[in-house]
Every structure is written in C-alpha cells, then in structure tokens.
Recover the amino acids of this structure.
DNA sequence: ACGGTATACATCATATCACGAAGTATCAAT
DNA sequence: ATTGATACTTCGTGATATGATGTATACCGT
C-alpha cells in the first residue's frame, strides 16, 4: 500500500485502463475501484486520463447524473493493446526480479 | 529490452544496487553487467549512483587502474534494506498484475 | 437549518528523474 | 595514426506524480 513512487509510475496507466476494461467508468469510481491495489489522488488520475485520451487509448463521453457532471471513459483498441504490451513487459520484469533477488554469494555467507 | 520508461524507473535503483551486492563494482562494469536485464546510459547510471550515495545506500572509493580513474561503489546496510523492501513491493506488484490481466468479462466475450 | 461527508471534476506549481548530447582522458589493437 | 574500448562528468530537457486549492451538488444526522 505504500509502494515506492517510481515503481508506481509504470503501473498507473495500465491500472487506469484495467479499471475500465469491463465497462466504461468515471474518475471517482476509478479511484475507488483501484484503492485495494494502488492509491492515487484525484490530480494524478485526471492527469493520467487526459494523457491516455491524448494517446487515443480511451474516449470520453460527458453525462449528467443527479444534476452533476460525470465523464465516462471508454477504453479503445489502442488501450487494450497497451495492456497486452504490459504483459510482455511483465515477463522482462520477472527476469529483473530474479536478478535482484538471486542468492547472495558474498564470502561472509559461506 | 524495450521496456516502458516509466516501468524502468522503479527498477533502476534496485538493479544498480543488485549489481554490487556480491562485490564492489564501478560504473562501466555495472552498465555491462546489467545489459542483459535492463539498458541504461552512462548519464542515467551516474545520476543514479550519485542519488544512491546521497541516500547513504552506497559508499564510494576512488582507485587508479591502468593509469585511469576508477570509482568503486560499495553497497551499505541501507542499500541492502532497500533491496529487501523491493521484495515486499514486488508482492504488491503481483496483485496489480493479476488485477490488470484478470479475465475479461465484457458482454461480447460470452 | 446547519454542518459534515461523499460525490465529481479542474488547474497550477513543484520536485523528481531518465536520457541524449557533448566533453575529457587513457589504453589496446590494427 | 586511427579506431574502438574503457571510464567518468555535466548540462539541458521533457515527462510526470502529487499536494494544494477551487468549484459545485447531494445526502444524512442533529
């Protein structure tokens, strides 16, 4: 829950995309849905949503809900492609993890 | 090999620390040792080494080798602690990975 | 009626950081 | 003599997470 900021960076985009992969979602809901996995503030989320929109990974649709504005985000094919790429990157990350955690071979550990 | 820049960010520090966990190392060697796992330029590495030194995760010792300057880096207890923390963070990352890759439940996939 | 909390989105300033570019210098091999 | 490998340094830039702050409505308890 208190993950290193830098580690989060690479995961945020795909997490946000994953939050809308089954059905369109909106800012407030995305934050709450992701809470069990990764914490992100409103300013962070809306920055990400804007970036993903610019990258054509999602489309936006504004609705009125209970007199309040609500913007629904819809993942595009490019967005799903990004999620697939993440799976490939994950394999590389596993190799890195193994390198980092490989058994210590210092003299003193004989 | 062509991992997303943001994803790399969280891994670079621990990779550099891991590169010197068995024996002290120096810039040029670290870059080559990490090459099979993660690519990083000289400017990136030396920035990281400086940062890790400031954070007391490593100490530096300058030596002369074949008439050339060579700076050996030695991981500290704090550096090893950072690597342990990474293992904890990795567990969180696995949960995130599972969330992202969880089977699609869209209508069309019935 | 009032206050607090939840819902919902937007913008700005700041700090961190990876990286290319360019530089300095030595040594080995062709 | 030239090229490539070794080895470290500094600068500028662009990307980006986040706190702070602001706007606005709905709901619930007292």
């Amino acid at each position: 829950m208190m993950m290193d900021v830098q580690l989060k960076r690479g995961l945020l985009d795909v997490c946000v995309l994953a939050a809308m992969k089954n059905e369109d979602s909106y800012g407030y809901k995305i934050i709450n849905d992701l809470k069990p996995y990764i914490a992100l503030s409103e300013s962070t989320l809306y920055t990400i949503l804007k970036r993903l929109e610019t990258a054509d990974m999602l489309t936006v649709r504004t609705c009125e809900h209970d007199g309040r504005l609500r913007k629904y985000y819809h993942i595009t094919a490019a967005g799903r492609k990004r999620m697939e790429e993440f799976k490939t990157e994950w394999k590389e990350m596993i190799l890195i993890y193994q390198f980092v955690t490989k058994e210590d071979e210092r003299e003193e550990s004989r």
The interface with chain B takes residues 1, 3-4, 6-15, 17-18, 21-23, 37-38, 83, 85-87, 89-90, 92-93, 95-97, 99-102, 104-106 of chain A (CB under 8 Å). The longest strand of chain A covers residues 58-65. The two ends of chain A are 36 Å apart (CA to CA). The mean pLDDT of chain A is 92.
